[in-house]
Amino acid sequence: MIKFYNTLSKKIEEFKPVKKDFVRIYNCGPTVYDYDHLGHMWTYTMADIMRRVLEYNKLKVRQVMNITDVGHLTEGDVDKMLLASEREKKTPGQICEFYTKIFMENRRKLNILEPHIICKATEHIKEMQGLIKKLLDNGYAYKITDGIYYNVPKFKDYGKLSGNTVEKLEVGARIEVNPEKKHPADFALWIIAKPGHLMQWDSPWGRGYPGWHIECSAMSTKYLGDELDIHTGGEDNIFPHHENEIAQSEGATGKKFVRIWMHTRFLNIEGEKMSKSLGNFMRLQDIEKKGFEPLALRYLFLITHYRTPLNFTWEGLKAADTAWKRVLEFMDVLKNLKAKSGHNEEIDKLIEKSKEEFSEAINFDLDTPKAVAVMFDFMNKINKFIAEKKLDQKNVLESYNLVKDFDKVFAILKEEKETKAPKDVLKLLEDREKARKEKDWTKADEIREKIKKNGFMILDGDSGPRLKKI
Ligand SMILES: [Zn+2]
């Protein structure tokens, strides 16, 4: 049984897809006018782990993610796309392509699986207009001078996700800047373009561009149908974005839009919120520049539960990096071990128990910190058996396969690339062995250094020395 915390019910509930054995997932995608940061990567890694957990449970998944490239965001009164366009001397298309490419590369570096469908907002303007028309027809939207607006008080369930009900919003409303709006909480579905707005399209209501929220309602329905199983995002998406998505989709279809809403908490940097004024936006590239591999960051994400705010610190990353390398080293040792003792039935039982505990952890609201602890406990016990020489080759293989199995969810092991050492390095290794046999330790050490300069390190083990690429 899989359980997830649902932001909608504020409870951990049993997960049951609308269609048996087929899960429909929508991830709110990035806005591609600027670089993605670690907070984004945490959210997408969580969505990836969730998908992998479902697949680990043999469920078929269809995952859809949008790319927000319509240029509707503004900074003050200025179109953000216009700002980026001037700053970088590029067209909107070039800007979106550039940042999308980096975003997708960063995902791949973190072993995040590609969604089955990636859809761009600019390629779905027709679908958005269709949805707006539906909302106008059934009375959930109205037209004023500067565009089409959603009539929030008309949707009785407004506020069910975020708690921001119409009454609460009324109390908290600041002086309304647009006197034509019927209610301060009403939000734009279609905006008539002001002169100079870079991206705009024809519509039955005048040339303009869509509001931010409508794209996710339009595209999720197009690719997944009216009822989704899981919708993900960062906690900053809960209001207004996801609350408005519900109002739009349910206003149009009359059906329950999403079964489970999942949100990742904030990611802070050294105790501070990431912000422009603090200039502390951290990117994956900043981590790589300091010599860390992206998968060490993925490991750090795994040991933090997605519903706990993550405080990123360099110290924390360093600790995660050390632990992550221990896993890689463990697998490396097993791969090269030649175990000659008798079969150890205790290990059979340990494997069975660890597999059960692992499943239990991941299936309980993605408790990856616990699942990682299960893996470490297993590794420590196996290491002890190795030291005591209490296992056979079958035990070794099955232990290796168990961690491989865990990695279907963790995805922290690197792709296995056999890096064969060049001939001259192999010759050096031979020379070193000879020197060691002759007890010429100085020479042996010198050769070790030479091998290191060639990009390899020597691992001395039970089955003789091996070379590992540094
Ligand atoms: Zn969205």
Record keyword descriptors for this entry:
Rossmann fold; alpha/beta; 3 domains; 470 residues; binds zinc ion; Isoleucyl-tRNA Synthetase, Domain 1; 18 strands
Can you give a write-up of this model?
The chain is elongated and about 90 Å long. It folds into 3 domains: 3-264, HUPs (Rossmann fold, 3-Layer(aba) Sandwich); 284-410, Orthogonal Bundle (Isoleucyl-tRNA Synthetase, Domain 1); 423-469. Helices cover 46% and strands 17% of the residues. Strand 1 (3-6) and strand 2 (11-14) form a beta hairpin. It has helices at residues 38-56, 80-88, 92-109, 125-137, 166-172, 214-224, 238-253, 284-289, 294-302, 314-336, 345-363, 368-387, 393-410, 423-437, 441-453, and strands spanning 3-6, 11-14, 22-27, 60-67, 74-75, 78-79, 117-120, 141-144, 147-150, 188-192, 208-210, 228-234, 258-264, 267-269, 272-273, 310-312, 456-461, 464-469. The relative contact order is 0.11. The chain contains 15 helices and 18 strands. Helix 12 runs antiparallel to helix 13. The strands form 6 sheets. It has a 5-stranded parallel sheet, with helices on both faces. It starts with a strand and ends with a strand. It is α/β, with parallel strands linked by helices and 470 residues long. The model has no long low-confidence stretch (mean pLDDT 93). Bound molecules: zinc ion. Zinc ion binds next to loops.
